[in-house]
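hi support,

uploading two proteins for the ticket. first:
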Amino acid sequence: MALGRVRALRTALTTAVLAGLVLPVVAPGAGAAALPPGFVLRETDTGLGQYQLTDFAPLPGGSVLATGKDGRVRWVPETGTGRTIAALPTRTVSDLGLTGIAVAPDYATSHTIYLTRSVDTTSGFVMRLSRFTVTVDAAGTPSGLTGELPLFEVPGFHNVHGIDTVAAAADGTLWLSIGDAADFTKVDTGAFRAQDVNQPYGKIFHLAADGTGVPANPYYDAANPGSTASKVFARGFRNPFRFGIDPNLGLPVAGDVGWNSWEEVDVVQRGANQGWPCWEGTHPTPGYSGLAECAGVANQPPIFEYQHGSGPMQGNSVTGGIVYNGSSYPAAYRGAYFFGDYVTHKIWTMTYDDQGRLTRGPESPPVFTDIGGPVRFAAAANGDIVYADILSGKLRRLSYSAGNTAPVANASSATDPATRTVSFDGSASVDYDNDPLTYDWAFGDGTATAANAGPQVSHTYAAGTESFTATLTVRDPLGATGTTTITVAPGNHTPQLTLTTPGDTTTFAVNQPVTLGAAATDAEDGSLPITWTSAVRHCPSEATCHAHPGIGGTGASFSLPFTEHPDSRMDFTATVTDSAGVSTSKTYTAMPRRHRITLLSTQPAALSIPVEGGVSTALVTEGATFDVVAAPLGTDGVSKFTGWQGGPAETTWIVTVGAGDLTLTANYATPIDQRYDADPALRAKLGAPTAAEVTDGPVHYRTYANGRLYWSATGGTRYVIGPVLAKYLAFGGHAKLGPPTTDTTATPDGAGQYNHFVNNGNVGSIYYTAATGAHAIYGEIRKKWAALDYERGLGYPTTDELGTPDGAGQYNHFVNNGNVGSIYYTTATGAHAIYGEIRKKWAALGYERGLGYPTTDELGTPDGIGRYNHFSLGHSIYYTTATGAHAVKGEIRKRWAALGWERSYLRYPRTDEYVTNGVYRSDFQGGYITYTLATGAVDRPW
């Protein structure tokens, strides 16, 4: 497969539910998929053809909208032939095309959908998220699209890594992903757009319905909600082509397609930086990681990564997936995350905990292979995994026979006594997996069974016997059956039953009365008594529905309060039986009036609705009372729960669902909040906050009117203010120096201020005085300065650490009461201090360009009279108050050293080395040394 096609469609999904999608069984030999025992693949054709199917989304009632790379939108009904309802202008080169679709949660009334695609312009192309309205025909089925409203549009640069997945959340917000829009054929500095929160590339966004950012986003600016930064949820992606929102964590789980070597799956935390292009998975990216732009770039490790190749645990284009929440699969798969690889035609599963940490790695080798090219995962009504196979243009569903829900057979009959013909109707039979059923009828009179005869049949009985028992057996595609019997009297009129109900569209709150009426007559018997039964049908999912028998009664009317049992509906059945034993029944199902309850938190945290299985969002019946629980600590392990907004301070809150959707927010105080709130003096010092707290990898910070608070696991919570903060930010902030380990603190002499910082164990500082300004000092130079007693020794730095002209060394200058000093460092010489008269002499001789770098600090001579520094070119400078500072070099220095330095009769130098008539000479207190090539170094007294 050509690279353009391999990379044309990356994969994953928003977690949609395919309510009622009917998928026929794949014919034997139709595919070579290798599946675990008990699993089968079923499929339905979207009509889009090979290499076109990019995404799909269910509609209320069970049909599906599917998108084609070429801009087609197809309506695919449960049965029958689909049709194209739109062909949108779309740029289809390479990765680009119509790539994403989502259905609004209020589609039943609004007919709103969202599409992502690339569109040609006069100057290139743009990548666009738009809202559309689906038009319907007289039968109420989709017939077209109208009213395009662009919500998000950005220019494109390359025909790869474009606009990808859109997900419509139950709260009306939208999630969106866009790749880095960079050239994959070479190192492209444009890929660094993925690191810039002000650039709309290489990001996952969380948007309000109008396309602006949501306030919970990490970089949200209330004064400018339409800014790119306000929309960003996480950054540092190469191409998060597909992602889904984990219903338990409330976080995106994305498959990020790699470059040369690695594919990754990310549980995406708020404010996370997934590291691209500096990191590919957990590995520095060759060609990028050594660039200056990668210095200090944090990397949130993926939950799983795999290497490129064709081996069992390798692949080439990751397809993000979903968590299996059904109950028909074996226990090993329940709660497992399904994901795949589009290029190598495989699916893995793995599990992770409520903090996004891997608890079971993917199977090795994968257990689902040769399954086609998955480019989007979703769940069927019973939880079965469904995916879009771009290689065939079909939707494919993984079902498991052992966990299949058996269908329920229901039958009624009507008799024509004149001809002894009984008409049977089994269309009320139910399969809670929404599978198609076959109907086998045995009429009870010894005639052959009518196999696969359909839900409605007729049978004429011979005279002589007045009562028979007919049997209906319904069978789903996996072989599960349901059976019911019905007594018929061919010469007897069937009782007629009329049921009066609140209506099929009426829904009920907890304890709201459900009242029904019935009337029954019979041609032979006249009025008949009516018997009522009720049942609570508990449906955690449609595949796991089961009945709890309820209260019964008799009479023309019947009423019960709607159940408080969670995730349940109620069945009310009226039954009449005539004197011939022929019965007629009719059932009314009362459905719950449900509202979405959503748990949010001000910081990522484990939130749960225990009654709904521990998820953080669920549809719950109006009037239901239950508890919600927040973890005492956020997922960072340090943010503390402080109470529910509008609720109790305890982690558990008992709530009752009212007449609308309910969002509950748990407040968490980050370490930054905790310190700020607990310290009035600090609040006065920093002023009011001016922006939301920002998470950048392991470092958190918040900006206030007069400074910033930083938190890290290594430094704790520390404030940085004034000129020290200005220098810190100008110098590169925590990316360069690391987070602070002290507050901005006054120096002992009261003249200055400082903060210490640490970056991967390396300590740095910024010191400030009004006279010197603010300057950074770190590494070996800082260690030397500290060893010399900080500012009490050399004084305060007057420069940041700078490089020497020859590129070999680094230095800082200092000043102490007007006296200038320096520390110079090279890897060969280490860090050494030089100051006073010796430094002046060294400076006069050209610094390191004259004598080289200092190899010692300034030291005292053994006699206590003089001071000296040695230098890397074999020279020295000696100083006494009597002689001043003078350099001693080369062969003359060697002769002086051989005589015993200043302890010799020559004592200290009075001059630098000078040349007279070709003779090199240095004068000393007790004599002099001359040097020529012919004589060598010769010392003489005065």
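and the second one:
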Amino acid sequence: MNKKCLIILLMVILSAGCMPEGPAARKKLPPDEEKLPIHLADPANDEALVNLLNTYRPVAIPWLAKWAKEQPGGIVIDLRADESMEPLSAAYLIKRDKVFSIPVQLIWDGRSASRAAYFLKLANGYKEVNITRIGEGFSAFQSDCFNF
């Protein structure tokens, strides 16, 4: 993963506002839109990711606005430690009114569930953008989790 993708991912995850309560109807992305897959299987990098986000937080909104125009299909964040385990996921919409709206699919497994919870809890501290849960994710029987 290149540094630009990593920085964007961090800003999206941790500047997301707060996690809303309760499930909502899942919103599918149009199939012609490209999604940016970001694999973060190694928890040893989490502290560095948080530090990068905090460093670039002052410029997050302009970067995210520009990036959302260039990458309209959204982001798939895969925290799974073991891709052979049954995947779990949730879909979110990260937005700042009249500036940008970015769909994000968060994927984890049993071994990475605490990391998913950590990143979502951390996002509660950032109010620059709003995050809305838009769905539960994809079927566990689907063979390619990046095509939902």
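thanks. also noticed: Confidence is low (pLDDT under 50) at residues 15-27, 139-148.
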